[in-house]
Amino acid sequence: MKTIRLISALTIGALVAIGGIAVAQQAGTVKSLRGVQVDEYVPLESNHKQDEKRFPRAYRQQPPLIPHSIEQHQIDRNANECLACHDWSVAGERGAPTLSMTHYLDRDGNQLDQVAGTRWFCNQCHVPQVDALPLVDNTFEPSK
Ligand code: HEC
Ligand code: HEC
């Protein structure tokens, strides 16, 4: 009895090991959607950063796309560096577009002096763009 158990344990062990090798070999040929090996480094510098002009909106309600890099601008619970240029109180002298007044309305529709908490995390809605190949084709058309 004991020998039979031992043999079957060994057989299962061997099968698992062979399976593991097969999986490992497959992983070697897996490619990411960008068409390179998953562990291959794609340098960000080759991605063009758009900062020449503002982007047209693709549909009426779209949060405008960010035409500049945001890498260096911190947003967390205590700080929001976007406001250093975009808040109504400084936008004029910084030459940046002012936050629209919708950003100063709280969820009950009250006008606030400071940007509303619901608009604090700007990049929840506004995103910068890079000139990268799209992963999937996009045939979106806005309604008229
Ligand atoms: C150093 C000042 C500065 C900071 C900081 C800054 N911006 Fe800007 N931003 C600008 C300027 C200037 C423009 C206008 C660029 C132009 O008109 O070509 C702009 C444009 C934009 C626009 C486009 C508005 C439109 O109507 O097309 C968005 C959205 C935006 N910024 C979001 C952000 C967000 C989000 C952050 C923080 C992560 C941020 N900005 C930080 C200066 C700044
Ligand atoms: C919940 C989504 C949301 C968040 C969060 C948000 N925005 Fe917006 N933003 C929008 C939409 C939608 C518009 C366009 C409609 C409007 O003006 O309200 C807009 C418009 C703008 C504009 C253009 C204003 C104009 O009149 O051209 C700027 C600049 C901007 N946002 C910056 C910011 C910054 C900076 C933050 C963070 C403090 C922020 N937004 C947070 C959705 C958002």
Commentary on this structure:
The chain is an all-alpha fold and 144 residues long. The protein is 24% helix and 0% strand. The chain is elongated and about 70 Å long. It is built from three helices and no strands. The protein has two domains: 1-42, no CATH class; 50-133, Orthogonal Bundle (Flavocytochrome C3, Chain A, domain 2). The chain has helices spanning 2-27, 83-86, 91-94. The N and C termini lie far apart (78 Å).
Number of helices: 3
* Whole-number tally of structural domains: 2
Largest sheet: none
- Give a count of the beta strands, DSSP E runs of length 2 or more: 0
CATH class descriptor name of the largest domain: Mainly Alpha
Low-confidence stretches: none
Q: SSE order, as H and E?
A: HHH
**Cα-to-Cα separation, first versus last residue:** 78 Å
Do you know the CATH architecture of the largest domain? Orthogonal Bundle
What level of helicity do the residues show?
A: 10-25%
The percent range for strand residues is under 5%
CATH superfamily of the largest domain: Flavocytochrome C3, Chain A
Could you report the average pLDDT, rounded to the nearest whole number?
Answer: 80
Computed CA radius of gyration, to the nearest angstrom: 26 Å
Say what the CATH topology of the largest domain is.
Answer: Flavocytochrome C3, Chain A, domain 2
Overall geometry comes to elongated
Subcellular location: Periplasm
Keywords: Electron transport, Heme, Iron, Metal-binding, Periplasm, Signal, Transport
Family: Belongs to the NapB family.
Protein name: Periplasmic nitrate reductase, electron transfer subunit
